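G., before I forget:
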Amino acid sequence: MTLFISDIEPGKRNMRKISLFYLLNAIFCALFGIIYEQFSHGVYSGYMIFAFAFPLVGGTFPFAVLSLFAHGLLPGRLPRFLYNAGIAALTVGSMMKGVLEIYGTTNDLLKIYRFAGFGFVGIGLIIYAAELLSARKSHHEKNDSNENQP
Amino acid sequence: MGIFRKKYKWGVIYAILLIAFTAYVILDTFVIARVYAKVSSEENIGMQNASESTLSTNPVKELILQATPEETADQNNTIPFTDSAVITDNSYSDRDIRITVTKYREYDTTIYVADVRILSAEYLQTAFARGEFGRNITEKTSTIAEANNAILAINGDYYGAQTKGYVLKNGVLYRESASGNKEDLVIWADGSFEIITEGEVTAQTLAEDGALQVLSFGPALIMDGAIVVSENEEVGKAKASNPRTAIGIIDELHYLFVVSDGRTSTSEGLSLYQLAEFMQGLGADVAYNLDGGGSSTMIFNGEVINNPTTNGNSIKERSVSDIVYIGY
Protein backbone atom coordinates (compact mmCIF):
# COMPACT_ATOMS: atom_id res chain seq x y z
CA MET A 1 0.00 0.00 0.00
CA THR A 2 2.86 2.30 0.79
CA LEU A 3 3.87 1.83 -2.80
CA PHE A 4 0.81 3.74 -4.05
CA ILE A 5 1.29 6.52 -1.59
CA SER A 6 4.92 7.14 -2.23
CA ASP A 7 4.75 6.34 -5.91
CA ILE A 8 1.98 8.67 -7.04
CA GLU A 9 0.50 11.46 -4.98
CA PRO A 10 -1.54 13.65 -7.32
CA GLY A 11 -1.71 17.31 -6.48
CA LYS A 12 -4.74 19.43 -5.80
CA ARG A 13 -4.49 20.87 -9.29
CA ASN A 14 -4.95 17.37 -10.62
CA MET A 15 -8.08 16.97 -8.46
CA ARG A 16 -9.45 20.19 -9.94
CA LYS A 17 -8.83 18.88 -13.44
CA ILE A 18 -10.66 15.64 -12.62
CA SER A 19 -13.53 17.61 -11.09
CA LEU A 20 -13.79 19.74 -14.22
CA PHE A 21 -13.68 16.65 -16.43
CA TYR A 22 -16.58 15.16 -14.47
CA LEU A 23 -18.48 18.44 -14.76
CA LEU A 24 -18.15 18.32 -18.55
CA ASN A 25 -19.35 14.71 -18.47
CA ALA A 26 -22.35 15.69 -16.36
CA ILE A 27 -23.23 18.50 -18.79
CA PHE A 28 -22.92 16.09 -21.72
CA CYS A 29 -25.16 13.53 -19.98
CA ALA A 30 -27.75 16.20 -19.14
CA LEU A 31 -27.83 17.47 -22.73
CA PHE A 32 -27.97 13.93 -24.10
CA GLY A 33 -30.87 13.12 -21.79
CA ILE A 34 -32.79 16.29 -22.74
CA ILE A 35 -32.31 15.70 -26.48
CA TYR A 36 -33.18 11.99 -26.19
CA GLU A 37 -36.35 12.80 -24.29
CA GLN A 38 -37.36 15.26 -27.02
CA PHE A 39 -37.60 12.34 -29.43
CA SER A 40 -39.16 9.79 -27.10
CA HIS A 41 -42.81 10.71 -27.83
CA GLY A 42 -43.56 11.64 -24.26
CA VAL A 43 -42.16 8.45 -22.75
CA TYR A 44 -39.73 9.47 -20.05
CA SER A 45 -37.21 7.58 -18.01
CA GLY A 46 -35.70 8.81 -14.76
CA TYR A 47 -32.58 6.81 -15.56
CA MET A 48 -32.06 8.86 -18.71
CA ILE A 49 -33.04 12.23 -17.25
CA PHE A 50 -30.91 11.85 -14.10
CA ALA A 51 -27.91 9.99 -15.58
CA PHE A 52 -25.94 13.23 -15.15
CA ALA A 53 -26.18 12.81 -11.37
CA PHE A 54 -23.53 10.08 -11.33
CA PRO A 55 -20.69 12.20 -12.75
CA LEU A 56 -21.95 15.29 -10.89
CA VAL A 57 -22.49 13.83 -7.42
CA GLY A 58 -19.99 11.01 -7.74
CA GLY A 59 -17.29 12.95 -9.56
CA THR A 60 -17.48 16.73 -9.69
CA PHE A 61 -18.40 17.29 -6.04
CA PRO A 62 -16.03 14.86 -4.27
CA PHE A 63 -13.01 15.83 -6.38
CA ALA A 64 -13.85 19.51 -5.95
CA VAL A 65 -13.94 18.96 -2.18
CA LEU A 66 -10.60 17.17 -2.33
CA SER A 67 -9.07 19.99 -4.36
CA LEU A 68 -10.35 22.66 -1.98
CA PHE A 69 -10.28 21.17 1.48
CA ALA A 70 -8.13 18.01 1.58
CA HIS A 71 -5.25 18.49 3.98
CA GLY A 72 -4.06 14.93 4.04
CA LEU A 73 -3.28 12.37 1.42
CA LEU A 74 -5.02 12.56 -1.95
CA PRO A 75 -6.13 9.32 -3.62
CA GLY A 76 -3.47 7.49 -5.58
CA ARG A 77 -3.68 6.27 -9.15
CA LEU A 78 -5.19 2.84 -8.44
CA PRO A 79 -8.11 3.95 -6.22
CA ARG A 80 -8.76 6.85 -8.59
CA PHE A 81 -8.81 4.52 -11.58
CA LEU A 82 -11.18 2.10 -9.88
CA TYR A 83 -13.45 4.90 -8.64
CA ASN A 84 -13.56 6.55 -12.06
CA ALA A 85 -14.23 3.18 -13.71
CA GLY A 86 -17.13 2.63 -11.32
CA ILE A 87 -18.69 6.04 -11.97
CA ALA A 88 -18.30 5.50 -15.73
CA ALA A 89 -20.06 2.12 -15.52
CA LEU A 90 -22.90 3.57 -13.43
CA THR A 91 -23.33 6.54 -15.80
CA VAL A 92 -23.35 4.45 -18.98
CA GLY A 93 -25.56 1.85 -17.27
CA SER A 94 -28.06 4.52 -16.28
CA MET A 95 -28.25 5.88 -19.81
CA MET A 96 -28.61 2.39 -21.27
CA LYS A 97 -31.38 1.61 -18.80
CA GLY A 98 -33.06 4.84 -19.91
CA VAL A 99 -32.79 3.92 -23.59
CA LEU A 100 -34.27 0.49 -23.00
CA GLU A 101 -36.99 1.81 -20.68
CA ILE A 102 -38.07 4.41 -23.23
CA TYR A 103 -38.16 1.76 -25.94
CA GLY A 104 -40.19 -0.44 -23.58
CA THR A 105 -37.84 -3.34 -23.17
CA THR A 106 -35.42 -4.81 -20.65
CA ASN A 107 -32.16 -6.75 -20.60
CA ASP A 108 -30.70 -8.72 -17.71
CA LEU A 109 -27.21 -7.66 -18.77
CA LEU A 110 -27.92 -4.18 -17.36
CA LYS A 111 -27.25 -5.63 -13.92
CA ILE A 112 -23.59 -5.91 -14.83
CA TYR A 113 -23.26 -2.12 -15.04
CA ARG A 114 -24.63 -1.85 -11.51
CA PHE A 115 -22.47 -4.61 -10.06
CA ALA A 116 -19.31 -3.37 -11.81
CA GLY A 117 -20.10 0.25 -11.00
CA PHE A 118 -20.74 -0.07 -7.30
CA GLY A 119 -18.05 -2.76 -7.04
CA PHE A 120 -15.32 -0.57 -8.55
CA VAL A 121 -16.41 2.49 -6.57
CA GLY A 122 -16.44 0.45 -3.34
CA ILE A 123 -13.04 -1.10 -3.93
CA GLY A 124 -11.59 2.28 -4.91
CA LEU A 125 -12.88 3.86 -1.71
CA ILE A 126 -11.59 0.97 0.43
CA ILE A 127 -8.12 1.26 -1.08
CA TYR A 128 -8.16 5.04 -0.54
CA ALA A 129 -9.22 4.50 3.08
CA ALA A 130 -6.40 1.99 3.49
CA GLU A 131 -3.97 4.52 2.06
CA LEU A 132 -5.13 7.12 4.56
CA LEU A 133 -4.79 4.70 7.48
CA SER A 134 -1.40 3.59 6.31
CA ALA A 135 -0.23 7.18 5.94
CA ARG A 136 -1.53 8.07 9.40
CA LYS A 137 0.23 5.07 10.90
CA SER A 138 3.50 6.02 9.17
CA HIS A 139 3.08 9.58 10.38
CA HIS A 140 2.61 8.42 14.02
CA GLU A 141 5.58 6.06 13.82
CA LYS A 142 7.72 8.87 12.47
CA ASN A 143 6.62 11.19 15.27
CA ASP A 144 7.24 8.49 17.88
CA SER A 145 10.73 7.84 16.59
CA ASN A 146 11.48 11.59 16.60
CA GLU A 147 10.28 11.87 20.20
CA ASN A 148 12.42 8.91 21.27
CA GLN A 149 15.60 10.41 19.83
CA PRO A 150 17.88 11.96 22.49
CA MET B 1 0.16 8.78 -29.44
CA GLY B 2 -0.14 10.35 -26.03
CA ILE B 3 -3.37 8.63 -25.22
CA PHE B 4 -1.64 5.25 -25.30
CA ARG B 5 1.07 6.32 -22.88
CA LYS B 6 1.50 3.99 -19.94
CA LYS B 7 -0.26 6.51 -17.69
CA TYR B 8 -3.51 6.16 -19.64
CA LYS B 9 -3.15 2.54 -20.72
CA TRP B 10 -5.63 0.99 -18.26
CA GLY B 11 -8.09 3.82 -18.73
CA VAL B 12 -8.08 3.30 -22.48
CA ILE B 13 -8.42 -0.48 -22.11
CA TYR B 14 -11.33 -0.04 -19.68
CA ALA B 15 -13.05 2.47 -21.99
CA ILE B 16 -12.75 0.04 -24.91
CA LEU B 17 -14.19 -2.80 -22.79
CA LEU B 18 -17.06 -0.59 -21.60
CA ILE B 19 -17.91 0.49 -25.16
CA ALA B 20 -17.67 -3.10 -26.44
CA PHE B 21 -19.94 -4.37 -23.66
CA THR B 22 -22.45 -1.58 -24.32
CA ALA B 23 -22.45 -2.42 -28.02
CA TYR B 24 -23.11 -6.07 -27.13
CA VAL B 25 -26.01 -5.09 -24.84
CA ILE B 26 -27.53 -3.05 -27.69
CA LEU B 27 -27.12 -5.94 -30.14
CA ASP B 28 -28.48 -8.43 -27.61
CA THR B 29 -31.50 -6.23 -26.95
CA PHE B 30 -32.41 -5.21 -30.46
CA VAL B 31 -30.67 -7.40 -33.03
CA ILE B 32 -29.47 -10.88 -32.05
CA ALA B 33 -32.30 -13.34 -32.63
CA ARG B 34 -32.68 -16.28 -30.27
CA VAL B 35 -35.25 -18.97 -30.95
CA TYR B 36 -36.46 -20.72 -27.81
CA ALA B 37 -39.28 -22.76 -29.36
CA LYS B 38 -41.04 -23.30 -32.64
CA VAL B 39 -44.80 -23.50 -32.89
CA SER B 40 -45.61 -27.10 -33.79
CA SER B 41 -47.22 -27.72 -37.17
CA GLU B 42 -50.24 -29.27 -35.42
CA GLU B 43 -51.06 -25.90 -33.93
CA ASN B 44 -51.17 -24.47 -37.45
CA ILE B 45 -53.33 -27.15 -39.04
CA GLY B 46 -56.50 -25.23 -38.31
CA MET B 47 -54.98 -22.09 -39.71
CA GLN B 48 -54.05 -23.78 -43.00
CA ASN B 49 -57.69 -24.62 -43.65
CA ALA B 50 -58.62 -21.02 -44.19
CA SER B 51 -59.46 -20.33 -47.77
CA GLU B 52 -57.23 -17.87 -49.55
CA SER B 53 -60.30 -16.57 -51.32
CA THR B 54 -61.43 -15.03 -48.06
CA LEU B 55 -58.58 -12.53 -48.32
CA SER B 56 -59.00 -9.59 -50.60
CA THR B 57 -56.67 -6.82 -51.62
CA ASN B 58 -59.28 -4.12 -51.69
CA PRO B 59 -58.17 -0.61 -50.81
CA VAL B 60 -60.16 -0.85 -47.62
CA LYS B 61 -58.56 2.03 -45.81
CA GLU B 62 -60.25 4.83 -47.69
CA LEU B 63 -63.62 3.15 -47.85
CA ILE B 64 -64.31 2.30 -44.23
CA LEU B 65 -67.40 3.99 -42.97
CA GLN B 66 -67.18 6.73 -40.43
CA ALA B 67 -69.81 6.21 -37.79
CA THR B 68 -70.90 6.77 -34.26
CA PRO B 69 -70.65 3.89 -31.75
CA GLU B 70 -74.42 3.39 -31.83
CA GLU B 71 -74.47 3.14 -35.62
CA THR B 72 -71.71 0.51 -35.56
CA ALA B 73 -73.52 -1.66 -33.06
CA ASP B 74 -76.68 -1.47 -35.15
CA GLN B 75 -74.78 -2.25 -38.31
CA ASN B 76 -73.00 -5.33 -36.96
CA ASN B 77 -76.18 -6.68 -35.47
CA THR B 78 -77.85 -6.57 -38.85
CA ILE B 79 -75.12 -8.45 -40.72
CA PRO B 80 -76.05 -12.13 -40.74
CA PHE B 81 -73.78 -15.15 -40.43
CA THR B 82 -73.67 -16.62 -43.94
CA ASP B 83 -72.77 -20.05 -45.29
CA SER B 84 -70.13 -18.70 -47.63
CA ALA B 85 -67.80 -15.80 -46.96
CA VAL B 86 -69.27 -12.43 -47.84
CA ILE B 87 -66.69 -9.69 -47.94
CA THR B 88 -67.30 -5.98 -48.34
CA ASP B 89 -65.00 -3.01 -47.90
CA ASN B 90 -65.71 -2.83 -44.20
CA SER B 91 -67.17 -6.20 -43.26
CA TYR B 92 -66.63 -9.92 -43.34
CA SER B 93 -69.19 -12.59 -42.68
CA ASP B 94 -69.33 -16.35 -42.97
CA ARG B 95 -71.02 -19.11 -41.02
CA ASP B 96 -68.76 -18.67 -37.93
CA ILE B 97 -67.27 -15.20 -38.05
CA ARG B 98 -68.79 -11.76 -38.45
CA ILE B 99 -66.67 -8.62 -38.48
CA THR B 100 -67.46 -4.95 -39.07
CA VAL B 101 -64.69 -2.37 -39.20
CA THR B 102 -65.56 1.26 -38.52
CA LYS B 103 -63.51 4.42 -38.40
CA TYR B 104 -64.22 6.98 -35.66
CA ARG B 105 -63.03 10.51 -35.04
CA GLU B 106 -62.76 11.25 -31.31
CA TYR B 107 -60.32 13.30 -29.20
CA ASP B 108 -58.76 14.69 -32.43
CA THR B 109 -57.78 11.14 -33.17
CA THR B 110 -58.70 8.61 -35.82
CA ILE B 111 -59.76 5.36 -34.21
CA TYR B 112 -60.42 2.06 -35.99
CA VAL B 113 -62.77 -0.41 -34.38
CA ALA B 114 -63.43 -3.95 -35.48
CA ASP B 115 -66.62 -5.32 -33.98
CA VAL B 116 -66.22 -9.10 -33.97
CA ARG B 117 -68.77 -11.84 -33.35
CA ILE B 118 -67.64 -15.44 -33.55
CA LEU B 119 -69.35 -18.73 -32.88
CA SER B 120 -66.34 -20.32 -31.15
CA ALA B 121 -63.42 -18.92 -29.15
CA GLU B 122 -61.04 -21.04 -31.23
CA TYR B 123 -61.23 -18.38 -33.96
CA LEU B 124 -59.72 -15.79 -31.61
CA GLN B 125 -56.07 -16.70 -31.94
CA THR B 126 -52.54 -15.41 -31.51
CA ALA B 127 -49.45 -16.02 -33.62
CA PHE B 128 -45.70 -15.50 -33.32
CA ALA B 129 -43.54 -13.82 -35.90
CA ARG B 130 -42.05 -16.55 -38.13
CA GLY B 131 -43.95 -19.07 -36.02
CA GLU B 132 -41.12 -19.02 -33.50
CA PHE B 133 -40.96 -18.09 -29.84
CA GLY B 134 -37.79 -16.21 -28.92
CA ARG B 135 -36.06 -12.88 -28.55
CA ASN B 136 -35.69 -10.38 -31.38
CA ILE B 137 -37.82 -12.50 -33.68
CA THR B 138 -40.08 -10.00 -35.35
CA GLU B 139 -42.12 -9.45 -38.46
CA LYS B 140 -44.62 -6.88 -39.55
CA THR B 141 -48.16 -7.44 -38.32
CA SER B 142 -49.31 -7.75 -41.93
CA THR B 143 -46.71 -10.44 -42.65
CA ILE B 144 -47.68 -12.52 -39.61
CA ALA B 145 -51.35 -12.03 -40.45
CA GLU B 146 -50.80 -13.20 -44.02
CA ALA B 147 -48.80 -16.24 -42.87
CA ASN B 148 -51.71 -17.25 -40.66
CA ASN B 149 -54.51 -16.39 -43.10
CA ALA B 150 -55.90 -13.90 -40.63
CA ILE B 151 -59.14 -12.17 -41.58
CA LEU B 152 -58.60 -9.50 -38.95
CA ALA B 153 -55.38 -8.91 -36.98
CA ILE B 154 -53.88 -6.44 -34.54
CA ASN B 155 -50.42 -6.34 -33.01
CA GLY B 156 -50.15 -8.24 -29.73
CA ASP B 157 -48.25 -7.76 -26.49
CA TYR B 158 -44.74 -7.70 -28.01
CA TYR B 159 -43.60 -10.35 -25.54
CA GLY B 160 -40.15 -10.35 -27.21
CA ALA B 161 -39.33 -6.91 -25.83
CA GLN B 162 -39.50 -8.29 -22.30
CA THR B 163 -37.43 -10.92 -20.58
CA LYS B 164 -40.19 -11.69 -18.07
CA GLY B 165 -43.96 -11.92 -18.23
CA TYR B 166 -46.22 -14.82 -19.06
CA VAL B 167 -46.32 -16.05 -22.63
CA LEU B 168 -49.19 -18.46 -23.20
CA LYS B 169 -50.43 -18.62 -26.77
CA ASN B 170 -53.11 -20.86 -28.25
CA GLY B 171 -53.08 -23.01 -25.11
CA VAL B 172 -49.30 -23.56 -25.05
CA LEU B 173 -47.21 -22.12 -22.22
CA TYR B 174 -43.91 -20.68 -23.49
CA ARG B 175 -42.72 -18.47 -20.62
CA GLU B 176 -43.78 -18.66 -16.99
CA SER B 177 -41.56 -16.08 -15.28
CA ALA B 178 -43.75 -13.45 -13.64
CA SER B 179 -43.11 -9.78 -14.25
CA GLY B 180 -43.80 -8.21 -10.88
CA ASN B 181 -47.42 -7.28 -10.47
CA LYS B 182 -48.20 -6.84 -14.14
CA GLU B 183 -51.85 -7.13 -15.13
CA ASP B 184 -52.51 -9.76 -17.80
CA LEU B 185 -55.52 -10.51 -19.93
CA VAL B 186 -56.52 -14.16 -19.87
CA ILE B 187 -58.75 -15.45 -22.66
CA TRP B 188 -60.37 -18.65 -21.48
CA ALA B 189 -61.45 -21.56 -23.65
CA ASP B 190 -65.05 -20.33 -23.65
CA GLY B 191 -63.88 -16.97 -25.02
CA SER B 192 -64.43 -15.04 -21.80
CA PHE B 193 -61.94 -12.41 -20.62
CA GLU B 194 -60.40 -12.10 -17.17
CA ILE B 195 -57.79 -9.70 -15.82
CA ILE B 196 -55.23 -11.35 -13.53
CA THR B 197 -52.07 -10.18 -11.78
CA GLU B 198 -48.95 -12.17 -12.59
CA GLY B 199 -47.64 -12.26 -9.04
CA GLU B 200 -50.91 -13.69 -7.74
CA VAL B 201 -51.43 -16.68 -10.04
CA THR B 202 -48.81 -18.77 -11.79
CA ALA B 203 -48.73 -19.27 -15.54
CA GLN B 204 -48.76 -23.02 -14.92
CA THR B 205 -52.06 -22.71 -13.03
CA LEU B 206 -53.55 -20.66 -15.87
CA ALA B 207 -52.45 -23.30 -18.39
CA GLU B 208 -53.88 -26.11 -16.26
CA ASP B 209 -57.14 -24.21 -15.81
CA GLY B 210 -57.57 -24.02 -19.58
CA ALA B 211 -56.41 -20.54 -20.54
CA LEU B 212 -56.31 -20.23 -24.31
CA GLN B 213 -54.34 -16.98 -24.46
CA VAL B 214 -52.52 -14.78 -21.97
CA LEU B 215 -51.65 -11.27 -23.10
CA SER B 216 -49.02 -9.60 -20.96
CA PHE B 217 -48.80 -5.87 -21.57
CA GLY B 218 -51.50 -3.81 -19.94
CA PRO B 219 -52.76 -2.11 -18.05
CA ALA B 220 -56.36 -3.22 -17.81
CA LEU B 221 -58.64 -0.45 -19.06
CA ILE B 222 -62.10 -1.69 -18.12
CA MET B 223 -63.31 -4.37 -15.71
CA ASP B 224 -66.95 -5.22 -15.16
CA GLY B 225 -67.89 -2.29 -17.36
CA ALA B 226 -66.04 0.25 -15.20
CA ILE B 227 -62.91 2.16 -16.15
CA VAL B 228 -60.03 0.94 -13.99
CA VAL B 229 -57.21 3.04 -15.40
CA SER B 230 -56.57 6.45 -13.88
CA GLU B 231 -56.35 9.65 -15.89
CA ASN B 232 -52.64 9.95 -15.17
CA GLU B 233 -51.70 6.30 -15.63
CA GLU B 234 -49.57 5.53 -18.63
CA VAL B 235 -47.51 2.80 -20.20
CA GLY B 236 -43.77 3.15 -19.80
CA LYS B 237 -44.33 6.39 -17.90
CA ALA B 238 -45.61 8.10 -21.04
CA LYS B 239 -47.61 11.23 -20.38
CA ALA B 240 -48.48 11.87 -24.01
CA SER B 241 -51.18 10.74 -26.32
CA ASN B 242 -50.03 7.92 -28.55
CA PRO B 243 -51.14 5.38 -31.10
CA ARG B 244 -52.88 2.62 -29.15
CA THR B 245 -54.00 -0.96 -29.57
CA ALA B 246 -56.57 -2.56 -27.32
CA ILE B 247 -58.90 -5.52 -27.17
CA GLY B 248 -62.19 -5.77 -25.34
CA ILE B 249 -65.20 -7.97 -24.88
CA ILE B 250 -68.79 -6.75 -24.96
CA ASP B 251 -70.57 -9.99 -24.18
CA GLU B 252 -70.25 -13.69 -24.98
CA LEU B 253 -68.03 -14.18 -28.09
CA HIS B 254 -68.54 -10.53 -29.03
CA TYR B 255 -65.29 -8.57 -29.12
CA LEU B 256 -63.80 -5.18 -29.94
CA PHE B 257 -60.42 -4.77 -31.61
CA VAL B 258 -59.37 -1.13 -31.37
CA VAL B 259 -56.42 0.70 -32.93
CA SER B 260 -55.87 4.45 -32.93
CA ASP B 261 -53.55 6.57 -35.03
CA GLY B 262 -51.29 9.05 -33.27
CA ARG B 263 -48.16 11.20 -33.30
CA THR B 264 -49.26 12.96 -36.49
CA SER B 265 -50.75 16.37 -37.23
CA THR B 266 -53.99 14.74 -38.36
CA SER B 267 -54.34 12.32 -35.46
CA GLU B 268 -53.09 13.25 -32.03
CA GLY B 269 -53.42 9.86 -30.36
CA LEU B 270 -55.10 8.74 -27.16
CA SER B 271 -54.21 8.60 -23.52
CA LEU B 272 -55.04 5.34 -21.78
CA TYR B 273 -57.97 6.98 -20.03
CA GLN B 274 -59.37 8.31 -23.31
CA LEU B 275 -58.99 4.85 -24.82
CA ALA B 276 -60.85 3.35 -21.86
CA GLU B 277 -63.59 5.99 -22.10
CA PHE B 278 -63.98 5.32 -25.81
CA MET B 279 -64.23 1.56 -25.35
CA GLN B 280 -66.65 1.96 -22.48
CA GLY B 281 -68.79 4.00 -24.84
CA LEU B 282 -68.80 1.04 -27.23
CA GLY B 283 -70.10 -1.18 -24.46
CA ALA B 284 -66.93 -3.03 -23.46
CA ASP B 285 -67.28 -5.10 -20.28
CA VAL B 286 -63.55 -5.89 -20.09
CA ALA B 287 -60.87 -4.04 -22.07
CA TYR B 288 -57.12 -4.39 -22.08
CA ASN B 289 -54.32 -2.25 -23.52
CA LEU B 290 -51.82 -3.93 -25.84
CA ASP B 291 -48.50 -2.72 -27.20
CA GLY B 292 -48.97 0.72 -28.76
CA GLY B 293 -46.86 3.48 -30.28
CA GLY B 294 -45.23 2.47 -33.54
CA SER B 295 -46.46 -1.10 -33.07
CA SER B 296 -50.16 -0.20 -33.36
CA THR B 297 -51.45 -1.83 -36.52
CA MET B 298 -54.76 -3.26 -37.70
CA ILE B 299 -55.05 -5.58 -40.67
CA PHE B 300 -58.40 -6.38 -42.27
CA ASN B 301 -58.79 -8.63 -45.28
CA GLY B 302 -55.07 -8.39 -46.01
CA GLU B 303 -54.88 -4.61 -45.87
CA VAL B 304 -53.35 -2.29 -43.31
CA ILE B 305 -56.31 -0.27 -42.06
CA ASN B 306 -54.64 2.38 -39.92
CA ASN B 307 -51.60 4.63 -40.34
CA PRO B 308 -48.87 3.02 -38.25
CA THR B 309 -45.98 5.33 -37.43
CA THR B 310 -43.15 5.41 -34.96
CA ASN B 311 -41.88 8.95 -35.47
CA GLY B 312 -44.99 10.65 -36.86
CA ASN B 313 -43.24 11.49 -40.13
CA SER B 314 -43.27 8.27 -42.12
CA ILE B 315 -46.20 5.86 -42.21
CA LYS B 316 -44.85 2.35 -42.02
CA GLU B 317 -45.37 -0.77 -39.97
CA ARG B 318 -43.04 -1.71 -37.17
CA SER B 319 -42.00 -5.32 -36.84
CA VAL B 320 -43.46 -6.99 -33.75
CA SER B 321 -43.19 -10.31 -31.93
CA ASP B 322 -46.78 -11.45 -32.17
CA ILE B 323 -50.32 -10.68 -33.24
CA VAL B 324 -53.88 -11.30 -32.07
CA TYR B 325 -56.14 -12.32 -34.91
CA ILE B 326 -59.42 -13.73 -36.06
CA GLY B 327 -59.11 -16.63 -38.44
CA TYR B 328 -59.41 -20.33 -38.95
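Chain A touches chain B at residues 39, 41-45, 81, 84-85, 88-89, 92, 96, 100-110, 112 (CB under 8 Å). The CA atoms of residues 86 and 117 of chain A lie 4 Å apart.

More on Monday.
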